[in-house]
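name: query_chain
kind: protein
chains: 1
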Amino acid sequence: MSDEALWALGRGTGITALMMLTVSMVLGIATRSGRGVAGLPRFGVVSLHQFASLSATLLIAVHVTTLVVDPYAQLDLVDVVVPFGGGYEWFWVGLGTLTLDLVVVVVLSALLRHRIGQRAFRTVHWAAYGLWPIAVAHGLGAGSDSGAPWMWAITACCVVAVLIAVGIRLHPRFTEFSRSREVATA
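structure:
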């Protein structure tokens, strides 16, 4: 694979990962209502959330691997594991490393959900609320396309989607699954 192809793959997977993380965030927030969304039953929304999360994780893995292999990016393995330890754009790349670390923790908690218990899973899963804005900042700061109007448009759409979902989540009429289950059994 040529250096240009590696660079394009690294950039493209990073941008697509941000979009899939956004879809995952919005669907994750939606699943807490206990209701279906857009004609899908709740289990369908949960399945889409899991698919988006795993897709984002795989895209992040390809993004990082590609940038480690790409001679132009000059990303070291230390940069991948230790946040804020690199030389090039240390802060912005460090945010990406922090995002990767948080993704690993959230994915592991999801895979070990039945072993660690629901409470621990939920507590760790709250890290996603911090992970997403860190990923957005990483893309805006470290991305070679960060100044492009189309990248700003993609990022703005992602931010608006999550803000709308959070706004709906914070609305008093938003019914959480646990409360709807209690009402149904009462």
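note: The radius of gyration is 18 Å.
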